[in-house]
Amino acid sequence: MKPKRHDAESVRRIAAKFTALREERGVFQKVVARATGLNIGLLETGRRNFTLCTIERLCRYYGITLTEFFRELEM
Questions:
Q1: Is the confidence at residue 5, as pLDDT, over 80?
Q2: 15: CB partners within 8 A, 6+ apart
Q3: CATH T-level fold of 8-67
Q4: Taking the mean position of all CA atoms in its chain, how far away is CA 41?
């Protein structure tokens, strides 16, 4: 049996938080992708795992700190 690569629930929560941030700002995935160089579609659907660098890059794009991002995220 293969070891679990990531906690699917954690990825889902992080993805949902970034989706909400994007929608609150009225920005399309394509705009975020161009600005960050990230495949937002794969991240927001949980088909790609988040790294700390990815989370940091998205937080910087949305103008929030890592602390602010994780403060409201129940893990």
A1: no
A2: 43, 44, 45, 46, 50
A3: 434 Repressor (Amino-terminal Domain) (1.10.260)
A4: 10
- The angle formed by the CA atoms of residues 38, 40 and 41, to the nearest 5 degrees, is 135
| 29-61 tens-digit pLDDT | 999 999 999 999 999 998 888 999 999 999 999
Q: How many residues does the chain have?
A: 75
Question: Does pTM top 0.90 for this prediction?
Answer: no
- Cβ-contact 43, 51 below 8 angstroms: no
pLDDT in the model for residue 72: 78
Torsion, CA 5, CA 17, CA 56, CA 33, rounded to 10? 90
